[in-house]
Every structure is written in structure tokens, then in C-alpha cells.
Specification:
The strands form 2 sheets. A 7-stranded mixed beta sheet has the order 8-7-6-9-10-12-11, sandwiched between helices. Strands 1-2-3-4-5 form a 5-stranded antiparallel beta sheet, with helices on one face. The protein has 11 helices and 12 strands. α3 runs parallel beside α4. By secondary structure, the protein is of the alpha/beta class. The chain is globular, with a radius of gyration of 20 Å. It folds into 2 domains: about 55 residues, no CATH class; about 250 residues, Rossmann fold (3-Layer(aba) Sandwich), CATH 3.40.50. A hairpin with a 4-residue loop joins β3 and β4. The N terminus is likely disordered.
């Protein structure tokens, strides 16, 4: 028997994670109301079913760029079967052992980045909240991955929501909260370009290391604008195409200086890895894309937290300290925006006077 959902979901607790039961969902395509059964959401006008997978609703319109729906379901089951067995680092290592397209070198680096990520997440959370002075009530992260930033937000925000286009990553992120004895926050599988939330659902949003993977960034930013309150802020952390440091996804220098078709061939030849689904943006391109949906676009130089800095090799620590010194010089700051490793892009739509 189906029920119409007009406010909060009426799926029974065993079918949805407890935090997900507090959310108001709409159809990601038509934004209309949904009906429910014990196992899925359904949009009558669109005639689409959206299943629930181990407590997490799957509102995707298209799959992530690396695995199709069936492959993602199979990989998600691998995670679920091992979720209770391993702490996060071991679970991530176990998960990556099933990837036949990611070289062992990159697997190890991805695991290390995930385990170091919470201090990076804290830095971004401090930026969006003005060092905790302006805490949002309803917070969304687009592309939450293994929950680095979400773990920080969950300690301070009444209703944190993490979304990702990969169901497997959302279930991997649950282990981070289990390891810390924290309640798992709301987790929703969806496309950034088609968010299953009502207008003005959130007071703040963060998108970190996700923008460069989007299928249609303009649509994603339009969706963020729709789901944010009028006085909300959005923070995007993304890599710079023309960075003078190694690209973090291929761990190679100079990738962004090549044409797109050459980038793919170069990474394949040097790392035997895929780069087809990554789009790198220059400072000018980033400014132009963001300005379509947001009136105020402030691109600033990103940094690393002192906690993260302490874990890096000596040479890298020295380079970061030189970088910090150069940022203080106005002329150098303008130059660095063109060649820095990454940016913090602050977006808002302030009311016109």
C-alpha cells in the first residue's frame, strides 16, 4: 500500500537511517511530492521509483562517472558486507582492493587523503561558519565522500546532510561515524544537478573536491541556489587547472597545462589511470561559471590547516610556509590566484540595496 508524502517521510525506521526520517524529500526531476512503500519512493507524474538501500534513499537521475548503477550496487554490497568488520582505514583499503582500474600507488594515496581529511574539513567548516560564529541550522555538503567535513558539521549543526552520487561512498562514510561513536547524520544519494529537496531547505552549503567531477556545473550551482535560503552562503573548494603543483587526482605535474584530450592520454600513460571524468577550471573559467547563479563570487587562496601541515613531508611544509608568506603581499596574491593549487570559492546572493 502506498502513502503520499506531504511533509516528512513516512517510511518506517528500519527502512531509513534515523536522521533521514527527519528530511522532506521531493522528486529530483519535477520537484513534486512523493509516495512511499516499505522499500522505495515513487513520483507519480514522472513514473520513477527511487529505492532505499540499507537506510539511504537513492534519488540519482544518472550514475556517477566511474561505475554504472549495477556496478555501484555490487560495490556497495561489498562495503555493507564488511561495514561491521573493519575500522575506516582498513575498510577503505579493503574497498580499493576491488578496484581494477585504480593503480595501487593511487589507492594508497586516496586512503591517506581520506584519513587526513578531517582537519581539512574543519578548516572548510570554519570558513563557512566564520570560525563558528555563525553556525547554520540546516547544512548540506554536496559530494561528502567519506564524511571528512560532515564529521565536523555533525558536531555543531542541528541538521547536517551529506549527499553523494556514489552510494558506496555514503556507506563507507558511515564507518567514520561508527569509529567515533557518533550518530550517523542524514545521507542521501543523488546528483548535484538534481537535488531532492524543497526550495530554501538549507542555510549553508559546502562542495569540496567535487566541482571538477560534475557533469553539468551550471545546473548544480542553479540547484544549490534553489535549495539555499536567501541569506545563505555556499563554499566550493576546488583545484586550479593551472596549478604549479602536482594534480591531486593523478599526482602528476603540469596536467592542466595540456588540452583536455592530451590530459587523458598523459595520465593514462604515466599513471595507467582514468582522467576522462575530471574537468579542471582556470580562475577566469571558475569565476564565469559561478556568476551565472550567484551575484557575489569571491575566489580566495586556499590553505592547509596546521594539523594537516604537521603530517606532511618536510619539503612540502617548507613550500607551504613560503606560500603563506607570499600570500601576504598584494601583488603576489593576485599572481598566486592564477597558479595556486586550489581555491576557496565563496558564493552568495546578497539582497540588493
Amino acid at each position: 500500500m502506498e502513502k503520499t508524502v506531504n511533509s516528512k517521510s513516512e517510511i518506517s525506521p528500519p527502512e531509513l537511517l534515523p536522521a533521514n526520517q527527519k528530511l522532506d524529500f521531493v522528486c529530483p526531476l519535477c520537484k513534486g511530492s512523493l509516495t512511499t512503500t516499505h522499500s522505495h519512493f515513487q513520483c507519480q507524474p514522472c513514473q520513477r521509483n527511487y529505492p532505499v538501500v540499507a537506510g539511504i534513499p537513492d534519488f540519482r537521475i544518472f550514475p556517477d562517472p566511474y561505475l554504472d548503477f549495477e556496478e555501484d550496487r555490487a560495490r556497495t554490497q561489498i562495503v555493507l558486507d564488511a561495514l561491521e568488520q573493519y575500522p575506516l582505514r582498513e575498510l577503505l583499503t579493503y574497498y580499493w582492493s576491488y578496484s581494477d582500474v585504480t593503480p595501487p600507488l593511487l589507492r594508497a594515496k586516496f586512503v591517506d587523503n581520506a584519513m587526513r581529511g578531517e582537519s581539512r574539513g574543519q578548516r572548510l567548516f570554519d570558513l563557512i561558519t566564520n570560525d563558528g560564529k555563525k553556525l547554520p541550522t540546516r547544512f548540506i555538503e554536496i559530494g561528502c565522500g567519506t564524511g571528512n567535513l560532515l564529521a565536523t558539521a555533525a558536531r555543531h549543526v542541528e541538521q547536517p546532510v551529506g549527499t553523494d552520487i556514489a552510494m558506496r561512498w555514503l556507506h563507507l562514510s558511515r564507518r567514520r561515524f561508527m569509529d567515533r561513536g557518533m550518530d550517523v547524520p542524514a545521507l542521501v544519494c543523488c546528483c548535484a544537478e538534481y537535488l531532492p529537496f524543497k526550495p530554501q531547505s538549507f542555510d549553508a552549503a559546502v562542495m569540496a573536491s567535487t566541482f571538477e567531477f560534475l557533469k553539468n556545473p551550471k545546473d548544480a550551482l542553479a540547484e544549490l541556489k534553489r535549495t539555499l535560503t536567501y541569506d545563505a552562503h555556499c563554499l566550493i573548494n576546488t583545484v586550479n587547472r593551472f596549478s604549479l603543483t602536482n594534480n591531486p587526482y593523478a599526482h602528476l605535474w603540469g596536467v592542466g597545462f595540456l588540452p583536455k584530450t592530451w590530459q587523458v592520454k598523459y595520465v593514462r600513460k604515466r599513471r595507467d589511470a582514468s582522467f576522462e571524468n575530471i574537468t579542471l577550471y582556470s580562475y577566469r573559467q571558475m569565476k564565469k561559471v559561478a556568476a551565472v547563479s550567484f551575484n557575489k563570487v569571491d575566489i580566495t587562496l586556499a590553505d592547509v590547516s596546521d594539523k594537516t601541515l604537521a603530517t606532511l613531508p618536510l619539503r612540502t611544509r617548507l613550500l607551504v610556509k613560503i606560500y603563506r608568506g607570499l600570500k601576504k603581499i598584494p601583488v603576489m596574491r593576485l599572481l598566486l590566484k592564477q597558479i595556486s593549487p586550489e581555491w576557496d570559492v565563496k558564493l552568495s546572493n546578497p539582497k540588493q540595496a
